[in-house]
Hints:
Elements: H1 3-32, H2 38-53, E1 58-61, E2 65-68, H3 70-95, H4 103-120, H5 128-143, H6 145-154, H7 158-181, H8 207-211, H9 217-234, H10 236-246, H11 248-253, H12 258-284, H13 296-306, H14 314-334, H15 341-354, H16 360-387
Antiparallel strand pairs: 1-2
Helix pairs in contact: 1-2, 1-15, 2-14, 3-9, 3-12, 3-13, 3-14, 4-5, 4-7, 4-12, 4-13, 5-12, 6-7, 6-12, 9-10, 10-12, 13-14
Amino acid sequence: MTKKRQLRFTIIRSLVAILIALLVATxxxxxxxxxxxxxxxxxxxxxxxxxxxxxxxxxxxKKNGTAFEAKRLADILAAMIPTTFTGLSVxxxxxxxxxxxxxxxxxxxxxxxxxxxxxxLPLPAWLHPVAAVLLGGIAVAVTMLLPALLKTKLNxxxxxxxxxxxxxxxxxxxxxxNTYLADKTRGQIMSYPFKETSAIAPIVxxxxxxxxxLSWGFVIAIVAVILCGLFMYRSRWGYAIRMIGINQDFAKYxxxxxxxxxxxxxxxxxxxxxxxxxxxxxxxxxxxxWSALPGYGWTGITIAILAGNNPYMVPFAAFxxxxxxxxxxxxxxxxxxxxxxxxxxxxxxxxxxxxxxxxSGYRQKLVVKSAEEEIKLAKARKEGVTNA
Length: 388
């Protein structure tokens, strides 16, 4: 199948999965909506869908009508920052067929280490956030050596190991915060304030961007997408990662150092998750107060699946998930529909993307069509050579 048709199939498959998920959401909204009659339930469903699908960028008012809301769009773009990094992290690890789920704990550890660097490292303003984010990324990269080496040396399941590692990270951080690092003068468990030199500034210093906490981390995330895409599709290391993911035995037979590449994929994925946590912490918060796993890693898994493990598609998937999350929050506020609906939508999307046979018939038709065109082209070339 040609690259053009492969891309078309991927896009159509993604859209169909999303539409089915939204259809399931619509049915659930109708069932759970308030109303004694069918017409009342239908009106409530329509209002809820309006808030979910258009509310993230438009404000609805009986007095002023419908108006574009720049602040809401900025909120969505800001929410993309951590999930773009976790999406990239999962993309690289999954591309090597390594089902490492450590991005969730990784982004929390990266945020924690960056926060400690923001508090205790005396550095100039231009260097402080860079050093803090790098330390957060390196800390998680080193931590991801544990599941990577256990996988390559002892064949321990990286999925189980990384899943348990998430909770070890969370409880170690909670222990350190509760015992040594919390500011006891505050009413809740949180760290001392960050130094002003560590802050990642908003892209534009106005009410919209500053209020939405849309920092330069968004630009860094887009740069990370480009670099990861170049790494995966324009470097021999990226090629090796993808080949191991497609057929590990063939890669090993071809002379690739499979163990080293597996470790590389998980370490690089860990660095991205840790850096994303640091950027989120320094761009949005003034002190560390996370007491539980933030959920960005789990969303990153959905984003990677939506993107088909293609780094270039990660921002679009991250935007979709952030948009949907914002819409569900607004729907819960204005239409009295449970915000947990986004978990159902994510689950349905995950289900159809994980199903290898979903739209397999359509894919087979595209493969056959491409093969027929190649045969016709080969015959035409052969006839042209014969006539010449």
